[in-house]
Amino acid sequence: MQDAYDIAIVGAGHAGAQAAICLRQMGFTGSLALIGDERFPPYERPPLSKDYLAGERPFERILLRPEAFWAERGIDLQLGQRVKAIDPVTKTVALSQGASTGYGTLIWATGGSPRMLSCPGAQARNMFAVRTRADVDKIIALLPGVESVAIIGGGYIGLEAAAVMRKLGKQVTLIEALDRVLSRVAGPALSAFFEDEHRAHGVDIRTGALVESIETDEDDRAVAVHCADGSRTAADMVIVGIGIIPQTGPLILAGAAGGNGVDVDEFCRTSLPDVYAIGDCAAHANPFANGGVMRLESVQNANDQAKIAAGHIMGGKVPYTAVPWFWSNQYDLRLQTVGLSVDHDAELVRGDPASRSFSVIYLRGGKVIALDCVNATKDYVQGRKAIVDGIPLDLAQLADPLVPIKAVEHA
Ligand code: FAD
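Above: inputs. Below: predicted complex with flavin-adenine dinucleotide.
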């Protein structure tokens, strides 16, 4: 590692890697470090709960770039290095292995660490998050001896893991504390659809079930999950998907403003001089969030904020206004989400969920603000334009799958 870099990027995940790529594409010729605490070159995270977990895609095929790419572009990839402190006055970062390095500009792209349970038994050896390759490799290594899996958390990661586990022939129980799956990100129609799908595929879904303790054996292995309703779910392995905690500790300690994530402006600048933050850890005022400040946990946000920060460092003045989008694969279903359903006041189902190709459209004040499209790519593409246009549309036509969204008349 050099004594100092013109730009140091901390976090070699989606956002950090993309920032390094963009800087070189935009003609940045100075010294550039990409510092990450994982041992692996930057890789795609979405397959971790999808085809990588299923054993259908090897690690080499989820690398964001071939291994040689980084050195070829003059990007000093420093792996297995955790930044533990920042001094914004001397512009130095301290690393966990005792070294330190200076920076001209710092890009903080550290994502989040998985939230884990804190109940009795939560330290069991066979309880896993699904955040890193290392997490998933541990799951895969144990799978041959596993018959039953309890999955805690009915968000996208829990549901995707459930689909993969069923495909691998495991008995699956999915335990969700709230009264429906996906309640943080989608409306009741989509939740009901995915609950039905998973039940039809043999997943035992328990909603409104609050985990109270994990029963362990003498080897400190989880053998069952106990819930507040008195139920006991036997399991050979427990997977926990209950969200992330943004990794902003060193930045906040150094004086950056933030709470749930580190606060950034429309150019991804933090309150510290020459320090940017991007990706899952960056709390920003999103133009599609009805004035709300939020963190977005998506590849779209990681990539687009990386572009904005890199562009600003290179002297541009383009603010972050990208339309949010997301996808999830479960069984043969492809969900594509666009926009943000934050503060929607109406929800409209377009098409018949029983056909397994339909969309849920979220409205605020008669305007389309978001869509969840299940096996309905045309709706996704045309709905995106409706969100950007922001014009109230005829609701009867919008609900009619025979009328293409792009042909729906104004209200
Ligand atoms: P990350 O990709 O998490 O990268 C952050 C990196 O920084 C990590 O390697 C971390 O170990 C490292 N780091 C943290 N602290 C330090 C430190 N102090 N020093 C050095 N390094 C540090 N999004 C979608 O849009 N569609 C999907 O289908 C989808 N599926 C997903 C499935 C799974 C299993 C997961 C975990 C995420 C999924 N996501 C999906 C979300 C998406 O992967 C994230 O939004 C994206 O990875 C965020 O990028 P990031 O760079 O902010 O964080």
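The CA atoms of residues 106 and 159 lie 36 Å apart.
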